[in-house]
Amino acid sequence: MTGRLLDSHLMQQRRGWTPARVTLAQSIALAGPVGVSLAERGAVQIAVLMTALVACLAWELAFDLIRGRSPSLHTVTAALIFAILVPATVPLWQIALAASFGVVFGELVFGGRGYGIVSAAAAAAGFLVFSFTGASLSVTSEAVALATLPGAVLLLWGGLISWRVLASVAAVLMAVELARQGLSGLPMVLTTAVFGLVFLVADPVASASTQWGRWVYGLLAGLLIMLFDTLAGSAIGPAALVFASLLASLFAPLIDHLTVAVIVRRRGRVHG
After folding, report:
1. pLDDT tens for residues 216-267?
2. How many distinct structural domains can be found in the chain?
3. Beta carbons of 102 and 121 less than 8 angstroms apart
4. CATH number of the structural domain spanning residue 77
5. What is the sign, positive or negative, of the torsion defined by CA atoms of 232, 238, 239, 240?
6. What is the pTM of this model?
């Protein structure tokens, strides 16, 4: 895990990406989906968004003070992603508790942004579904999906998400859906999955870091999404995306380790 994170940090530094710049880029990418969700859900979504932001930033400030660091706003993106995933009908205290769990145990206890194992937003969403009876996640609309695309282009252009991960996951989802319903089911699959793929599955810290590892990670995530989706008996829902991203991210270090081992062994054979 340490080696994978070190490689990721070195790569970002070479590209000029600092944690603050990553947070800014992701916040800009999320502006469209957040704006659309506010327009669709109305004033009640403001309360959801503010609750998630206050909970995440309060914990980040507390950890910064304990560690003697300057105050930062890195957990803003986790709060924004989580707020889009949460229905406006969820009680605010549950939102605050889930957001707190996600940023603390998904990010802050490991040292802050870039050192976690899973996506903090995915951890918060998973905690919400598991901890409260009847709690569910919101299915993203077509408008949110369309608003996600400009941000996805920005993150791809900046190298903050991998096209290999997105391509391999999308290939699995489309292949399975073609086998199920043919071409008619593809638009719905892509619409409901695009937000989760960009901001959860392709998370730059939680996903694999090696080039070939990203293909394997994406294939694994796609298969897990379809598995959880089949168990739920519905179209690709946000819960399937959340739990698939969480489980796949746990295997990401192993995937990277095995990928490096294979490359080293192959080069050893070539060069003696």
Report:
1. 999 999 999 988 887 655 556 889 999 999 999 999 999 999 999 888 888 7
2. 1
3. yes
4. 1.10.3430
5. positive
6. 0.89
